[in-house]
Amino acid sequence: MFGGLVAPALTTRGLLQLKRVGLRSKNLLLIGAIGGAAAGAATVLAALRLDIWALAPALLLWGAGLVAAACCDAVTQRVPTSLVRQAGVVTFVLLTSGLALYGDWRGLLVSMVAPVASGLTLLLCWRFAGAGFGDVRLAALGGLGLGHSTHRGLLLGLAAFILIVVAQAMVTVVRGGDRRTMIPYGPALAVGFLLAAAL
Question: What is the pTM of this model?
Fold first, then answer.
């Protein structure tokens, strides 16, 4: 429930940072609330699976930040840098504190390597496949929550990302777009990362 309240507030903050607050609508905030509630459920599932409740606040903020950035990207095709940076810093501090409290050094190491790996992967997509640089930042934020992901979760998250992007591309083509038409990757990234962390 907390995620359902935080994500719309962060979405509004992101739109303000992008100077596009006029695009805020009831539907967008509702989608943000539903996405935030789903992110909250995903973080609770991850905390239950790990039995490390100190991670819940970090993962909850992480999920709400992903959903808010994805909502902003969906309506503006831009990811708010300040929002992603602030969510990343606070998530990093809370995550590091929670993992250190439990002495989970392996989880801490993976939580530091995963943002670099996911950020570099999207950096290649930015360079060669037309992704935006905001997507690179969002991928780095997304990697923070993958410290305890399972192989199954990572594969399902990747599959969800691919399916969503392919569906977006098909809708774009049906509507008269071509391969140069920009599509927002933020929603697909958020879904993929949340599934990877939860399962």
Answer: 0.86
